């Protein structure tokens, strides 16, 4: 160690270390390649949505792509309201619809991990007024059944009552007049009303509304600041996307409705593209301080096969089979490049003429979410379309985002490379 004293400023000394500078923790070449790929991705995604807007296929969209611990992009395209020139950005709030089910499934998995509930808990133990079929059948219906649409209720039973705004405890009482179509656990039959009862179960377990539990366990720790779960908060937001319907060849904005806020677990959450990016990064296991990856996987475990070929996701490239877990669809597909079986964790959502898609590719550590403020034919194929674009851009394995993310904690600026200090 040596000290240099400057004559012009006798009180100022510079200490210079003779130790060699530490090797940067970031490969600058890889970082440059990553940034180039990130820009290439943004250009390609922008072209995709600009084309859809020009063709009149959509009005506006919030798009998020997460790879490893990186939010590669979280941006908006098009307009919040077709009548005005206010564009969608990453913090524009959309209604999520059934993407909400994925939040409920993860929340239940979190409570299960803490030993507060179990998948085999009987629904009637928490909601005594709930009855489906005789007592023997009712006693066999578990939390796992209502989270996986396998309770034995007919397709969309009492969704009309949910949309009419009836309280869930009132709806729960009415199932005694319905005849089950199967024994619990044997048949997949999609629900909103029965699924939403999981929120009531969790309320009984914790003493908190599901909205409070979601805020406390996930939204606040993850910094998901634009998310909300009630009509009033959404209506007062200054940056919201309005829903649109098509009349002949033109889009027309319509009013926000207050439907599904009585059934938050089934369809009552609102969020922006940025919040969904943070959510996907968490779901991919990059916030273990909030929830362990093994606990997350419980919601992503197949519980029942969704048979048939009529659903849009069953026509995605390489599709083999589809299942439902707890608030999530699980698809198995053959990846064209490797001919290997891979997994997609997925859900679609539709409410109040919003249309949304979320998909996680766990083997690739990749998440894609698209929020639309209109129904559109591109919704059924936007996930495989964007997945293809992402693969084409990040095709070189040695340019992984994992390496570039070290930049978030290590700076390569010249100031940090200096080993001397002024005394």
TrEMBL record:
Family the UniProt entry places it in: Belongs to the beta-lactamase family.
Cited Pfam families: Beta-lactamase
InterPro entries: Beta-lactam-related (IPR001466), Beta-lactam/transpept-like (IPR012338), Beta-lactamase-like_AB/R (IPR051478)
Source organism superkingdom: Bacteria
Domain (Beta-lactamase-related): residue spans on this chain: 47-377
Name this protein carries in UniProt: Beta-lactamase-related domain-containing protein
Lineage, broadest ranks: Bacteria, Pseudomonadati, Bacteroidota, Flavobacteriia, Flavobacteriales
